[in-house]
Amino acid sequence: MQSIVSDSYSVHFESNAFEALNSHLSSHNYSTIFILVDENTHELCLPQFMSEIAGDYNFEIIEIESGEANKTIETCVGVWEALSELGADRKSLLINLGGGVLTDLGGFVASTFKRGIKFINVPTTLLSMVDASVGGKTGVDLGPLKNQIGVINQPEMVLIVSDFLESLNERQITSGFAEMLKHGLIRNADYWESLKQVSSLYELRDHILPSVALKNDIVLQDPTEQNIRKELNYGHTLGHAIESYFLENENKETLLHGEAIAIGMITEGYLSYKLTGLPLSQLEDIKSTFLKYYEKVSFTAKDIDAILELLKYDKKNSHGNINFVLLKGIGETQIDVTISPELFQEAFAYYME
Questions:
Q1: Strand 4-5, strand 10-13: pairing
Q2: Could you list the pLDDT tens digit for every one of the 353 residues in the chain?
Q3: Residues 177 and 162 grouped into a single domain
Q4: Among 88, 160, 95, 92, which residue's Cα sits nearest to residue 125?
Q5: d(Cα 301, Cα 305) in Å, to the nearest integer?
Q6: Are 157 and 188 within one domain?
Q7: Are 212 and 4 in contact (CB under 8 A)?
Q8: Cα–Cα distance between 296 and 84 in angstroms, integer?
Q9: pTM for the whole thing?
């Protein structure tokens, strides 16, 4: 399978991934190779990963706890301390084997340890393969506020091996599918239509490369998110606020990223219908498609008020404005749209009706 070339690295797929990794390791004299895992990838993915390594290297394994709740500076401190205690130096390599939480955090740890060591990302969830695999965003949450601390820094390479998806449950697969659907909504109506026909994990595997290629095309044009890269945030302004609210509220069941973003794409679809010309028929298509895959969530008036209060922390805000990415139509966006507060209530009402 053909690799995708990004700005300063490549994304390698399936058998090519391990060929690229082994070639890289043999041609670089790393002092120590650290592999960052969580308890799940340690058990379910690390043995397969290690079995593909050709050559004799000095490996050290560092394990963190899984889950968005552990995407914190405190976890970073633990990894930094482990690296230091295990003798990591500036010629060390960190391989991040896990989902988006782990690759985001691991990339940030590597980018800041001794002012930066090299790292490789090996995403093991569908979400991390189609979202975190490209773009160089690293970082952690600040309390319940998502991705407030971080840097943009590129890995040496990204390795996507779809066999790792077999370690996931259906809910995690569906969470990642939301980001793929988003790629169709913002850039390619035909891709959106093709994804709507997907009925199994094995069909989804064929769509991973097109999703990565679509995101890579956007990132190459705008690496630091000054302009069109903002398109990738469709559904994420309200979606991240919803995700943060459910994460910090002990009376709510935590939503996976894709589950929250699905709600964000429906509600921001409604805003698009009201403000940027999204046809009603396409809005209804968006809503019915997401509700086919994602169970509807109930919101009280108190929930909505608390979620809207979190919007002021969104990373895209500037000069006191909350900036949204909206749709002109399926496959076409408009960035930096400001919203009247009363429309937020309407958007949630539309979602729940």
A1: antiparallel
A2: 789 998 889 999 999 999 999 999 999 999 999 999 999 999 999 999 999 999 999 999 999 999 999 999 999 999 999 999 999 999 999 999 999 999 999 999 999 999 999 999 999 999 999 998 789 999 999 988 888 999 999 999 999 999 999 999 999 999 999 999 999 999 999 999 999 998 876 789 999 999 999 999 999 999 999 999 999 999 999 999 999 999 998 889 999 999 999 999 999 999 999 999 999 999 999 999 999 999 999 999 999 999 999 988 766 655 557 889 999 999 999 999 999 888 999 999 999 99
A3: no
A4: 160
A5: 6
A6: no
A7: yes
A8: 46
A9: 0.93
Instruction: Looking at the structure, tell me whether residues 149 and 79 fall in a common domain.
Output: yes
Residue type, 257: H
Q: Is 266:178 a contact under the CB 8 Å cutoff?
A: no
Partner residues linked to 318 by β-bridges: 321
Quote the CA–CA distance of 119 and 117 in Å, as a whole number: 7
- The answer to whether 120 and 158 are in contact (CB under 8 A) is yes
Contact 31, 60 (CB under 8 A): no
Please check whether residues 178 and 311 belong to one and the same domain. yes
Alpha helix (H) residue ranges in the chain: 14-27, 39-44, 46-51, 73-85, 100-112, 126-127, 170-187, 189-196, 201-221, 236-248, 257-275, 280-293, 301-310, 341-352
| Secondary structure of residue 159 in the 3-state scheme | strand
209 shares its domain with 327: yes
In whole angstroms, give the CA distance from residue 17 to residue 349.
46
Contacts of 31 (CB under 8 A, 6+ apart): 58, 88, 89, 91, 92
Q: How many residues does the chain have?
A: 353
Name residue 90's amino acid: R
CATH number, domain of 52, equals 3.40.50.1970
Tokens of 239: 């979606």
Given a contact cutoff of 8 angstroms between Cβ atoms, the answer to whether 351 and 267 are in contact is: yes
- Please state, in angstroms and rounded to a whole number, the distance separating the CA atoms of residues 56 and 264: 47
Distance between CA 238 and CA 311 in Å, rounded? 7
